[in-house]
Amino acid sequence: MNLFKLISEIEQIDPEANERYSFYSRRNLIKYGTNLAAAAIPTLMATTFNQAFAQTTTAPSQAAIDVANFALTLEYLEDEFYKNGLAASGLIPTTDRTVISQISKHETAHVNLLKTALGAGAVAKPTFKFPTGTFTTYTTFLATARAFEDTGVQAYKGQAGTLINDKDILQIALQIHSVEARHASEIRRMQGLKGWVSDTSQTSFTQAGINLKTLTGKSDDAIREAFDEPLTKDAVLAIVKPFLA
């Protein structure tokens, strides 16, 4: 590790950092050698990191809070859905129960993380309703799970731009998004489907100004499978609304 380069980078964030480790000037580090560095520098650097980088932390914007609460509402829905499925006698086959149970644990963890991040600003859990038959046949249960997981993946993607200046919330969203994508693929496997999506409602084939048809020369379905599309908040709410009591 290049300690002096690291110190220089910290000084750019916290100009007063130099005063806190002035004793450990480059000359003194060379003079006293590795024993001093090994004994004292870890504590000094930890303190400096905490003080320097704490200055870069800012409260999330209202837009970021709204997005996080939007995500929390979706996670509440998925969390309750899987818990109800696991509680339904004879619904989930023994061969799939371990996987569904693990997905359920993930959703609970997502809820807890978002609630902790939002603190007092977290929305309360809504009352949900599920159509008759949702927890009666496994086929219907899996179809509903696929709809929730696919929607969740596209919902997180659709809000990424809003979080571009709120890195803490963005990191949480990305951590959850990648796991939701794995859930979606696993549910599709259970249904005997491909792990990726061909969304026939997708009519735009331009990404970042690039014409994907010209670039790839592939069919519309192949392009849809290769490039997952985001969903707007309004589109997601339209999908979720029937489940809100």
What does this structure look like?
It is a single chain. The chain is an all-alpha fold. It has two domains: 3-54, no CATH class; 62-243, Ferritin (Up-down Bundle), CATH 1.20.1260. Helices cover 66% and strands 2% of the residues. The protein has ten helices and two strands; from the N terminus they run αααααααββααα. The protein has helices at 3-13, 17-20, 26-54, 62-87, 94-118, 138-159, 167-190, 212-216, 220-226, 233-240; strands at residues 206-207, 210-211. Strands 1-2 form a two-stranded antiparallel sheet. Strand 1 (206-207) and strand 2 form a beta hairpin. It is globular.
In short:
With 245 residues, this protein is mostly helical. 66% of the residues lie in helices and 2% in strands. Helix 6 packs antiparallel against helix 7.
Distance linking N and C termini: 57 Å
Strand coverage percent: under 5%
Please tally the helical runs, counting DSSP H or I stretches of 4 or more residues.
10
What structural category do the secondary elements indicate? mainly alpha
* CATH homologous superfamily (4th level) name of the largest domain: Ferritin, core subunit, four-helix bundle
Determine and state the CATH class of the largest domain: Mainly Alpha
Number of domain units: 2
Largest sheet: 2 strands, antiparallel
Q: Give the helix proportion (percent range).
A: 55-70%
Taking strands numbered 1, 2, ... along the chain, how are they ordered across the largest sheet? 1-2
CATH architecture annotation name of the largest domain: Up-down Bundle
